[in-house]
Design a protein that fits this description.
The chain is mainly alpha-helical. The protein has two domains: about 45 residues, Ubiquitin-like (UB roll) (Roll), CATH 3.10.20; about 250 residues, Receptor-associated Protein (Up-down Bundle). It is about 75% helix and about 5% strand. It has a three-stranded antiparallel beta sheet, with helices on both faces. A hairpin with a 5-residue loop joins strand 1 and strand 2. The longest helix is centred in the last third of the chain and has 57 residues. It is extended and about 95 Å long.
Length: about 400
């Protein structure tokens, strides 16, 4: 197999070469024996449409850019290398636009700011701060660590939700199969003896007969309800109304607030470490909070502008837990508020993760019990006439 490699030679210049090897690892090893530092390798001749059409990811771009900068390339060379690596798709367009902006003499922060669809204001602010110190690698590392923390929390939430979701879906399908396929057929079998059936069995079989006589209209109605549900979920107003109701639940609303505060602390901490002033950092992270918490953040920002410490301002606005207040006071005394906010965010993220783990462990057996009782009740009501018939024969 042939592999196309891009590497740095002894003079720290970018070179491209094609090697024949049994695997990519063997090709990289051969290049290292030639004194080259490989930073990209791909099998020649393979064209993946999914790769061509890959969407641009700021996190992946940051990882690749930092790797090239650590390999010794300057910023312009690194961006040109990434642009040459992507020959199709959205990634190529974004990278080409950035390279063109750099060649026009624009700073890196202005180049990324011209692409707001791909780079959030948080990313732009981080790069702007790095240009003051001249250390882009450090800022990219902070942003990568920030994204990894967010992904870690998201993965915990998703992994904890997968099994209950599968259980609910499978249980609902089984129950639907019984109610809309099996029960109507039992209803036809028991049609002549409906008068001698128990009350609940009669009700169940009346429902089954109704479903059997109106199968297509019921199927159409169910499809309309499902379509309406997904349409409603896509509406921001509906999601906001659902969130408002969840916030009113005592235990869940409290954990949702802790999760929101963790996002606030993590993002503000990263901005403070990047050299962004506290007032501006809080103004940039306001969109991360739920709508009803933003006035509280605005009040805290005004108090900070008046000279009050962040721990006092956020605590007075109701945006700091007792643990967060104590840790912020320590951060203010030590002069590392950015790092302390990151530690507070990790503390609260772990707290939320423990709650989610406990909730799913408690919810799963309850859900299994409810589905088992529902399916068992349907089966017993269907077979109750057979049990009674067998008893009368004896």
């Amino acid at each position: 197999m042939q592999f196309h490699l891009q590497a740095l030679d002894a003079r720290q210049q970018v070179v491209s070469l094609t090697l024949t090897a049994a695997s990519e690892a063997a090709a990289r090893e051969e290049a290292r024996r030639q004194g080259l530092n490989v930073f990209f390798a791909s099998q020649k001749g393979i064209r993946l449409k999914a790769r061509r059409a890959a969407r641009f990811s700021a996190a992946l771009f940051s990882v690749e850019l930092m790797a090239l900068l650590e390999a010794g390339l300057n910023l312009v060379e690194a961006l040109q290398t990434l642009a040459e690596k992507e020959v199709h798709g959205e990634r190529h367009e974004v990278l080409a636009t950035m390279v063109a902006a750099i060649r026009r003499g624009e700073p890196f922060s202005q180049a990324v700011a011209s692409l707001p669809r791909h780079f959030p204001p948080l990313y732009v602010a981080t790069i702007q701060a790095s240009e003051r110190t001249g250390d882009v690698k450090e800022s990219l590392g902070r942003y990568i660590a920030y994204q990894e923390e967010l992904d870690r929390v998201k993965k915990k939430v998703i992994s904890a939700s997968i099994y209950p979701a599968i259980l609910a879906i499978v249980g609902s399908l089984v129950l639907g199969f019984l109610m809309f396929y099996v029960v109507p057929r039992f209803a036809r079998v028991y049609e002549d003896m409906a008068g001698g059936l128990p009350l609940f069995s009669r009700l169940l079989l009346v429902f089954g007969k109704f479903v059997g006589d109106h199968a297509w209209p019921i199927a159409f109605a169910i499809a309309c309800v499902v379509a309406l549900f997904f349409w409603a979920i896509s509406r921001p107003s509906f999601r906001a109304a659902c969130n408002a109701r969840l916030w009113r639940l005592p235990a869940i609303g409290e954990r949702m607030k802790v999760y929101q505060l963790a996002r606030l602390y993590r993002t503000a901490g990263m901005l403070l470490r990047a050299g962004i002033p506290a007032v501006r950092a809080l103004d940039m992270v306001k969109d991360l909070l739920a709508t009803h918490l933003r006035p509280q953040l605005a009040a805290a920002k005004k108090e900070i502008e008046q000279g009050k410490p962040m721990s006092v301002a956020l605590g007075a606005a109701g945006l700091a837990t007792p643990v967060a207040t104590r840790m912020m006071e320590v951060g203010e005394r030590g002069g590392d508020m950015g790092g302390m906010l990151g530690q507070i965010a990790r503390f609260h993220d772990d707290e939320v993760a423990r709650f989610i783990d406990w909730f799913t462990r408690a919810f799963e057996p309850l859900l299994m019990t409810a589905l088992g009782l529902a399916v068992g009740a349907v089966v017993v009501l269907m077979y109750m006439p057979i049990f009674e018939l067998a008893g009368s024969i004896r």
